[in-house]
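From the pipeline queue, job 12 of 40. The input is one protein chain; the requested action is below.

Action: predict structure.
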Amino acid sequence: MSATQPLVAPVVLSIGDPAGIGPELIAEAWHRRTSAGLPPFIVTGGVEVLRAASTARGLDVRITPVSAPNEALEAFADGLPVLAGLDAEYRPGHPDQSGAALALGSLEHATEIAIAGAASALVTAPIAKSELGKIGFDYPGQTEFLADACDMAARDAVMMLAGPSLRTVPLTVHCALSGVPGLISHDLICHKARIVSASLARDFGIERPRLAIAALNPHAGEDGKFGNEEARIIAPAIAALREEGIDATGPHPADALFAPHARSRFDAALCMYHDQALIPLKALEFDQGVNVTLGLPIVRTSPDHGTAFDIAGKDIADPGALIAAIRMAGECAARRTAQGAHG
């Protein structure tokens, strides 16, 4: 652990859709636990799925069924601890209802464990929302599910994509591009910027976070020639944030914001829409990108990729993003633990 002090509880992982790449990458992460510097972790459900996925990947991974999260700390050195219970048949590339039931049950159980404090952090493997929708999952994604589980409004859970050289936050997420201008507001920018600033300080140890806020229009509107959202909404919001003591700058033209020299000037970029945030992150950090949910009472991360049904079980999926998500979860949790001890 590079953060501050050892964790007193393991990180808990949900298994994700068992037909996707999640199970094999979880096994690979445990296999690389020492070289990757990972904290102890435990998986909720899927003993047989993980055993089969390990074999398909060609890994010699001992799956260790346990009955309580605290058993993971001792068991982790010799085997991958899995809370026995829900399971399914391992059918990579072929999602079905039983697999969706395992994915949802694992997510619910892992979330309960994290909220109860029996785990130091939560890492969620990729799910297929279309498959979960068939069994009653009616959330846009796992972020909204977690906000509800934590008795929070969805707007208070902020998605940040993080890699070694860049962090981005989409202010609007799953909506049509044509709807973005109507969703951008002074309140939205300020509300999310406050959460990002506080979370970077709390979970990432950045004493005075620097936020770069992107423009919506080309050339930041070019004095109203290409739109007036910058002058009418974004710039006033930035001014208000600065008055509060938050180091916010912009509106920055998005075409230049992610150049190497520009990235060194901010700790996170707040972007106006989904692709404005995710394209640069995935272009630069695809195999190490982590989805972090800011603003929750628990630490939650996830690899910034999907189920990849087309390559599941073929031993070609890169485990880098999941390994980074587990490592980041442990580091953020250790900082919270240290702050609690010193607070």
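Job complete. The first strand starts at residue 11 and ends at 14.
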